[in-house]
Write a structure and sequence with these properties.
The structure is a homotrimer of 241-residue chains. By secondary structure, the first copy, chain A, is an alpha/beta fold. The first copy, chain A, has one domain: Alpha/Beta hydrolase fold, catalytic domain (Rossmann fold, 3-Layer(aba) Sandwich), CATH 3.40.50.1820. Chain A contains 9 helices and 8 strands. In chain A, α1 links the parallel β1 and β2. The radius of gyration of chain A is 16 Å and the shape is globular. At the A-B interface, α5 of A face β8 of B.
């Protein structure tokens, strides 16, 4: 039995990873799906990256977690990298799933595609409360391109406004991921165009891990909604020893 | 029920898309497979790009087509882009299938791989009537690499000499595809080496669409022959809302 | 019935290709799995590339092989290229499977990723007898990423120390692969990270073949262990006319 902690991406909470978690549990593993500070109902939308990371460190401490396979999706890659830097003693392996891989001093926006900072800031300006929402056409075409329109609409309604500060804050690490001794995997969904393929997740960001295990699976950025069965299998293939 | 118009590529006619169309119809949709001027029996082999585009504009007008999902394969991407610029009121979505995506003033040959102009002109010189044919080894190895030899030979015999002028003519557009308001999808067959992978269809050409939906499917440039079932599904995944 | 000769990669012998060969034979073909000089029990670990190539030329001569589909895996690509230059009269097609494709005067190390020469020399320095072994973590994460840990361990124990000289020797060819008249295919396992994807097997090395047939299949560098069924099918799809 392995111990999985699944850390969601921006605009999500842990709840949306429920179906995936259930499938991994059915194979005999323990699975936790915490929600990062800033994405919980009532959380301040001025939450920054350090607080976000701290909330998952606290979660692992409170549960006295050991031997954890820590999985991070998208923005969750920022979070698990920060957690690994502070709580390596609780971890067995890091699994990045179409996730950002920061070196010390980098922000999520530093790793975006050319022009993405302007786009994100324009989205954020529409709300003017520190949070950012995605317009539906971008969600439907670029993030959940492998689902039908009903699934795209239903899941869009589950999203929560994301604290923009977590995207701009530069992470503080004592060592870069490539230097971390822990085992690492990268799951790449091959039709994920949340990051344009001319400026892709893999290998551009994955190779910042140094030695890592690559798992690829067909699907969009939101495989948790479009195909939890394939995602659960990919997580287990990435997470095993 | 959706309304599909499938626009073939160079050397083909609409007839070869028959098996794919039948599979889409079986799911309850309307499907048309016109043949572009220049590829119809008896057409002049000095046909140019503007005439080719005009023939599909006329086809939509004659059928008083509405709400069309307009699919273009390879060279057909030149044609559907021109049609979209002139007849957007008849269209619901553009679907490019391993297709050229021209900006205003570009020709198909402008988007070819380095050296491809020379190769195409050498092929054309062998016929000396304005048309171009492909040598069988290129067809078999680079265009229908996923089929057996019998399928490769049988389908080679269906091809018609293609008017070279349609490759060299520069398209005239009032706006580039990225600026067009219509929804867009790109189907990428992942083993398509008609365009070398160092100079690929996707993302090099697909990203000229601006926001678009990516659908990928295993197969060669000629999936209409090697696997119409997978192609039909990809077209429906690309064409739905 | 076709005649396949499967040439293994570094650290391997022909024996490890037994399960794949059996699956191809079950489809009615003849399959041979020689072991390259330098990898046979008792072979000198100072064996160089020319001797390695010569051992397969001799093998084909001794068996009076004709009409051979010659398949090379990884380092085996160096060997089959050299064999093709000397014994084209015995061959029907070359099939490279995540393999090196050398031009005249190139060594395997010339085609490695940036930094790989230093890494390989560091591995070799640990043995100091002319041979090189891979550390288990690299094998498990970068070369057999699609297998479970038991398979990774079991197959690691089958490996033999590889003569480093075969990696550094420059090949001597009368013509480069692109100029060879013989038919050529390239099998690319899409999760193969033995070569980092920022510096990939395909299309970087495959396109040195000139006109070639691409076959892609999901899997790691060691598909012979993780999925011989898929590998056997890929070899037959690559090897047929």
């Amino acid at each position: 039995m392995a111990h999985y902690v699944l850390v969601h991406g921006a605009w999500h909470t842990g709840t949306e990873l429920g179906p995936t978690a259930a499938l991994i549990r059915a194979e005999g593993h323990q699975v936790y799906t915490p929600t990062i500070r800033g994405n919980r109902p009532g959380d301040s939308k001025t939450t920054g990256l350090a607080e976000a990371i701290e909330s998952i460190v606290e979660y692992l401490d409170e549960n006295n977690a050991k031997d954890v396979i820590l999985v991070g999706h998208s923005y969750g890659g920022m979070v698990i990298t920060g957690v690994a830097d502070r709580g390596a003693h609780r971890l067995r392996r890091l699994v990045y799933w179409n996730a950002f891989v920061p070196n010390n001093g980098e922000s999520l926006l530093d790793m975006g595609a050319p022009g993405s900072v302007d786009i994100m800031e324009a989205f954020a300006a529409e709300r003017n409360d520190g949070s950012i929402e995605l317009p539906f056409p971008f969600w439907r075409e670029a993030m959940i391109n492998d689902a039908d329109i009903e699934t795209a609409k239903r899941t869009y309604n589950m999203l929560n406004p994301h604290p923009m500060k977590t995207f701009g804050d530069k992470i503080s690490l004592s060592q870069n991921p490539a230097e971390m001794a822990i085992a690492k995997s990268y799951i790449n969904c091959t039709e994920d165009t949340a990051m344009p393929h001319s400026h892709p997740w893999h290998p551009r960001l994955s190779e910042k891990l140094g030695l890592f295990r690559l798992i690829q699976v067909p699907g969009s950025h939101e495989l948790c909604f479009s195909n939890p069965v394939k995602l659960a299998q990919a997580i287990m293939d990435a997470g095993r020893d």
